[in-house]
Design goal:
It contains 26 helices and 21 strands. Helix 8 crosses helix 9 (253-263). The model is unreliable at 1-59, 110-131 and 803-821 (pLDDT under 50). The longest helix is centred in the middle third of the chain and has 59 residues, at 285-343. Strands 14-21-20-15-19-16-18-17 form an 8-stranded mixed β-sheet, sandwiched between helices. A 6-stranded antiparallel β-sheet has the order 3-2-10-5-6-7, with no helix packed on it. Helices cover 51% and strands 16% of the residues. The chain starts with 20 loop residues before the first helix and ends in a 13-residue tail after the last helix. It is α/β, with parallel strands linked by helices. A hairpin with a 5-residue loop joins strand 6 and strand 7 (212-216).
């Protein structure tokens, strides 16, 4: 690889380099601290000074450098942002908008809260009864059963939509057609495409299938093991649909339910209230609104249905009792009228009236006790059956006011409702606790019933005894009056009992008619507007991606890059002074200073010539060694142009090609390499014979000569020292182009005779690890006057401009005149 730097953009402004007073003073301080005169540089440096110069500073995050590195690749970031914004535009163009539909319902739970009180079943869990009931109602709202019931009454089993090249949009609620399944199992998830032909016919096909038929509206269309009929919707069908395809799919029932369950969100609106908010997010707000309204309707009706079922059971129980009483009343009434007609007796005596009044009271009591006994038998059978699907008839509806029985029945009904409405598994701790509580309540109810049945039997025995006593008293009346008394007693008893049951039945019917849902709709379903995609958010994300992705890639690439790409990185490796900065060259010739004296590259070498004076100072005929850590870093290019910079200032200069392993210096001046340093060192040629003149004044050249078999031994021979001594007598400046000091050891012997050593570091090519090891070796071999020259700088790079300006404060200006110093 050639040492010549790569071409640069000629249009890039490049300035003449001048050393500011402040920078010069700083530079002089370094020189004073580390003197470079020949007689002083050989003096050993103190341990503290060596540590200061050789120990690189610790790694620090340089945000300014990162900023300049990012700005230096602005075109990549601009490209990434453009691509990201284009993607965001396409996303917004083809992404279906997502809407949120919501409704609110108030859950009524006062009865539950008053029941639980301080004896809450879940008190041990640290939960409030109201919260538990509210949670159960929330679970019911999103349960599979309720969602299924709502979908049963909605036309969502078939999805109609228009299909574009990228996205599809639902036609609901303006579906242009209606598909009616006729028979068989419908082909689920099969996409049909209907193309309108005329007012009566259409073409029906199946995506990715050979099925295609032309059919008429209303005709049965067979498909595999099923058939269906297609009808146009009278309100939504028109001629504008001609040639347009309408797609439809028979939805999988389970998948449809799961879809709505997964999208349905039910949550409380506050921590202390019982109002819950139901919301759905989807692409069809009309569909979601209809679903929410239907779901709430089913939820509200569920509690009303339970109340009506309970009222119906009460009426049914009373009707069963009325059947027997009605027959007895009719029979006794007929007998009473017949007896009065036959015996022409309409009234009884005062004594008989008193007896009959007492008898009616006793018979009423007897009827009440029998009714209680019937209700106790009903509860006993209910408990024996172990039914949990329906709540028991309340005692109050039968006129039974026993507080213990009433409380237990209400408690059992409440717990059963809780258990049935629980959505969780039977193994759930809450459900287990409810099951235990139900069993305990049922057992307490059995014990209470046992005691009440015994008390009822005793009361019936006493009542029967009182009736017998009254019958004995009535035996003293005349026979006709006795018989009339008996008919009157039975008739009045049946009449009173029948009237009582009719009243209870009327109360039950009134209760059923006046039942209302426990819960209340607060706000019906309505759309909250579009929630996604938000254009501002999408473009903001695109901007973040457009910035973040390339910046991240740049940082990662920079982290794993093992090449020197800035002066900051160089400062982390070494504290050696940076003698100069050579910009990237796009000239064909290596002799830029001579062929293009007005260029920025030539100006940088003239600046380098000035700075080297601080190293060589008053040294006569100084020897300047140019080397590098690896091949291809531009040491030959630097040696040629540095010597050229001295020559054009009137100084007699010579370039010595000491890269005995890879000679190539001669080719840049079109000279011969048959003789040179190698032939001189072996004594084949004299100094005069190896010095070649160039076409440029004050500039001579000594090539490396033919490649010897032992370059390291030749470089360290006494003949080398003799060559340097003789050259110092003939020339003002001796520039040595040596082999890479980090690759071979040849240059260390020559470096001992140099007054200043330039270590070339090439931007983007020099390897950090190799450079660090080279500096370590140079320290160990006590290389004198060592400084760093940064080569091949890309002055278009903002990062390098920052690094350069920050380090030294130099400023380039376009050299238009082409005049050399």
């Amino acid at each position: 690889m050639s040492d010549k730097t790569h071409p640069d953009n000629e249009s890039d402004p490049f300035a003449r380099v001048s050393l500011t007073d402040g920078a010069a003073a700083s530079f002089m301080d370094k020189i004073i601290e580390h003197p470079t005169k020949p007689h002083t540089m050989q003096q050993p440096m103190s341990q503290e000074t060596v540590r200061h110069r050789q120990s690189p500073p610790q790694d620090e995050i340089n945000l300014t450098r990162i900023l300049y590195m990012v700005l230096g690749h602005w075109y990549l970031i601009l490209l990434a942002i453009t691509i990201a914004f284009a993607g965001a535009y396409l996303y917004l163009r083809y992404k279906l908008p997502v809407y949120r539909v919501s409704a609110t319902v108030m859950i009524e739970d006062e009865t539950y809260a008053s029941y639980y009180g301080s004896e809450s079943l879940l008190e041990g869990f640290g939960l409030q009864p109201v919260s538990n009931i509210l949670d159960n109602q929330i679970q019911i709202l999103s349960s599979y059963t309720l969602v299924s019931k709502a979908l049963d009454e909605l036309p969502f089993d078939i999805n109609y939509f228009y299909k574009g090249r990228i996205r599809s949009s639902s036609t609901y609620p303006n579906d242009p057609i209606t598909v009616i399944p006729d028979s068989g199992s419908m082909p689920l998830n099969t996409e049909f495409a209907l193309e309108y032909l005329d007012n009566n016919s259409f073409k029906l096909s199946v995506e990715e299938s050979d099925f295609a038929v032309v059919a008429y509206f209303g005709a049965k269309i067979p498909y595999k093991n099923s058939s269906f009929t297609v009808l146009p919707h009278p309100e939504n069908w028109n001629d504008r649909l001609k040639g347009q395809k309408i797609h439809f799919v028979f939805e999988d029932r389970e998948g449809l339910i799961a879809s709505y369950q997964s999208r349905l969100n039910v949550e409380t609106t506050s921590d202390y209230g019982t109002i819950v908010k139901l919301s759905l997010e989807g692409t069809n707000k009309e569909k979601d609104r209809d679903f929410l309204n239907k779901l709430i309707e089913k939820f509200l009706n569920s509690s009303l249905e339970k109340k009506n079922q309970e009222a119906s059971r009460v009426i049914e129980f009373i009707d069963e009792q009325l059947i027997g009483i009605s027959d007895s009343l009719m029979i006794t009434e007929n007998k009473l009228q017949d007896f009065r007609s036959r015996n022409r007796v309409m009234d009884i005596s005062a004594q008989g009236t008193q007896i009959i009044e007492q008898a009616v009271k006793l018979e009423d009591e007897k009827a009440r006790l029998i009714l209680e006994a019937n209700y106790y038998d009903y509860l006993t059978k209910y408990l024996a059956e172990g039914s949990t699907q329906e709540t028991p008839v309340a005692p109050a509806t039968m006129g039974i006011t026993d507080p213990m029985l009433t409380r237990l029945v209400e408690e059992l009904a409440t717990l059963q409702t809780e258990y049935l409405s629980g959505p969780t598994s039977e193994r759930n701790p809450i459900m287990v606790q409810l099951s235990v509580k139900i069993k305990n309540t049922q057992q307490s109810l059995r014990e209470t019933l046992k005691n009440l049945i015994q008390a009822n039997q005793i009361a019936q025995s006493e009542n029967s005894e009182q009736i017998r006593t009254l019958n004995t008293e009535a035996a003293g009346l005349p026979v006709t009056e006795q018989q009339l008394l008996g008919f009157e007693r039975k008739y009045k008893l049946n009449d009173e009992l029948y009237t009582f049951l009719l009243e209870k039945r009327a109360e039950g019917q009134i209760q059923k008619a006046s039942n209302t849902p426990d819960n209340e709709l607060v706000d019906p379903a309505r759309s909250e507007g579009q929630i996604a995609p938000k254009a501002q958010r999408v473009y903001l994300m695109a901007l973040m991606l457009g910035l973040g992705v390339p910046v991240s890639l740049l940082l990662v690439a920079d982290f794993f890059n093992n090449k020197v790409t800035s002066e900051d990185e160089l400062r982390r490796i070494t504290s050696l002074p940076v003698t100069g900065h050579i910009p990237h060259s796009d000239f064909e010739k290596q002799t830029v200073v001579l062929s293009e004296p007005g260029s920025g590259v030539a100006e940088s070498f003239r600046s380098l010539r000035t700075r080297l004076q601080f190293f060589i100072r008053e040294t006569r005929s100084p020897v300047i060694l140019v080397t590098s850590s690896m091949p291809g870093e531009g040491k030959t290019f630097t040696a040629i142009n540095l010597a050229s910079a001295y020559s054009i200032s009137g100084k007699k200069s010579v370039i010595v090609g000491f890269d005995l392993r890879k000679p190539k210096l001669y080719s840049d001046f079109n000279l011969s390499n048959e003789s040179g340093v190698s032939t001189y060192l072996i004594g084949k040629h004299s100094l005069k014979e190896i010095i070649q003149t160039t076409e440029f004044p004050n500039l001579h050249l000594i090539t490396a000569g033919p490649i010897p078999p032992n370059p390291a031994e030749l470089a360290s021979s006494e003949k080398t020292k003799e060559l340097i001594r003789d050259l110092k007598k003939l020339y003002d400046y001796i520039i040595i182009d040596s082999a890479p000091i980090g690759t071979v050891s040849d240059s260390y012997a020559v470096a001992q005779m140099a007054d200043a050593t330039l270590l070339i570091v090439r931007h983007g090519k020099t390897i950090k690890n190799l450079l660090q090891s080279t500096l370590t070796e140079a320290k160990a071999n006590e290389v004198k006057g060592l400084s760093v020259l940064i080569n091949d700088m890309d002055m278009r790079s903002i990062a390098y401009r920052y690094s350069y300006y920050y380090g030294y404060g130099y400023k380039y200006e376009k050299e238009k005149s082409g005049k050399s110093l």
